[in-house]
Amino acid sequence: xxxxxxxxxxxxxxxxxxxxxxxxxxxxxxxxxxxxxxxxxxxxxxxxxxxxxxxxxxxxxxxxxxxxxxxxxxxxxxxxxxxxxxxxxxxxxxxxxxxxxxxxxxxxxxxxxxxxxxxxxxxxxxxxxxxxxxxxxxxxxxxxxxxxxxxxxxxxxxxxxxxxxxxxxxxxxxxxxxxxxxxxxxxxxxxxxxxxxxxxxxxxxxxxxxxxxxxxxxxxxxxxxxxxxxxxxxxxxxxxxxxxxxxxxxxxxxxxxxxxxxxxxxxxxxxxxxxxxxxxxxxxxxxxxxxxxxxxxxxxxxxxxxxxxxxxxxxxxxxxxxxxxxxxxxxxxxxxxxxxxxxxxxxxxxxxxxxxxxxxxxxxxxxxxxxxxxxxxxxxxxxxxxxxxxxxxxxxxxxxxxxxxxxxxxxxxxxxxxxxxxxxxxxxxxxxxxxxxxxxxxxxxxxxxxxxxxxxxxxxxxxxxxxx
Length: 468
Prior knowledge:
With about 475 residues, the chain is α+β, with helices and mostly antiparallel strands. The chain is built from 9 helices and 4 strands; from the N terminus they run αααββααααββαα.
C-alpha cells in the first residue's frame, strides 16, 4: 500500500511540473512599416465616411446579384473544399490537444496451452495450462518542456489559418460573381445599343434603296448600307455569344447549372461609396489573406519550441492495474490482482546534430513565414492603391465617354438630316453611325470598368471598412 501511495505522489508531482516550463520563443507580432494613409487616398474628399459590412455586394442594390452571391457561397465547390479543410484542421487540433491527457486502455487475454510431459520437469496437474488476465493501462508523455503545448499552439494557428483561407475564398468568390454579373449586364446594354443601331442601319438601307429607285442615289450607297448592316448583325451575334458564356460561368460559380438570368440594365446599378482616407492599419485585421499569413507565422514560431523541446529528456509515465489467474472465475479476486507503475526517461546523447538541425530548420521556416507575412501586407497595400486610382480614373473616363456619346448622337442626327435633304453624301451618314455606335459601346464598357473597379476595391480592403 505504501508503494502505491509513493507512486501516486510521484506521478502527481511530475504531472504538475509541465506548467512551469515552456521552451522556445513566445509569439510577438512584428511591427510592419505601415503608412499613415494610402498613396491614392482622396485626402481632400468631403464625403462623410460610410461603414461597409462584409456583405458589400448589397450596396449595388440588385436583388439578382444578391441571390447569385448567396447561392455561390452555399453551393460553390471551392467553398465546400475550404469548409472541409477547416473541419480537417479542427480535427487535427483536437488530436494534438488530446496528447496532453493520458490515454487509458483496457487489455484482456485468454490463453490455453499444452506443455510437454517428457521434459526435464514433470507436468503437474496435467499438461494443459490456462491463463486469463484483464488490466487497465496507461502510458503518456509528461509535457515537461512544453513540446506538446507548442504543438497544440501550432495546430491552433493552422486551424485559424484554414478559417481565414475560407474567408479569402469567399471574398474572391463573391468578387468573381459580382464582376461576371456586371460584365453580363454590360453585354446586355451593348446588345441593346447594337440592336438599336441595327434598326437605324436598316432604315438607312431602306432609304437608300428608295432613293436608288428614284434615281437620287447610286448603287454605291446601297452596297455601303448593306455592309454596315451586316457588320452590326455580326457584332450582335458575337455579343450574344459572350453573354451566353458569361451566364454559363455564373452557373458554375453558383452551382446552378441550369441558371437563367433575366435581362437588366447596368445603367441602373448605383456606384457604391469609396473608403475614407486613413485606413491602412485596419487592413491588417480586415484582409483574411494577411491574417492567414500571420497564423502561418504563429505556427512556424511554435514549431521552434517543438524542435527545441526534442533536445531535452522525454519523461513518460506508465501504469497498469488488473488481475491474472489460471481460472476465469478468479481473475477479479483480490488474490489475482496485479499492477505495475513507473517513470521512463529518454535523453538524446549523440545524434550527429540531427535534432539541432531540426531547430535550425524550424527557425528558417519561421523566417520564411515572416517574409511571407510582410509580403502579404505589401501586396495588400499595392492592391488597394491600384483599386483606388482605377476607381477615380474610371469615373473620369466614364464622364468623358458619356459626353462623347451624346455628341456623337447629335452628329449622327445632323448627318442623317443633311443626307435626306441632299446636302451631304451617304458616306457621312455611315461614318456618323459608326462613330456613335463605338461611342455608345465605349460608354457602357467604361461604366462596367468603373463598377468592376469598385468590386476590386472591396476585395482589396478585405470586404469592407469601418467609419472612423
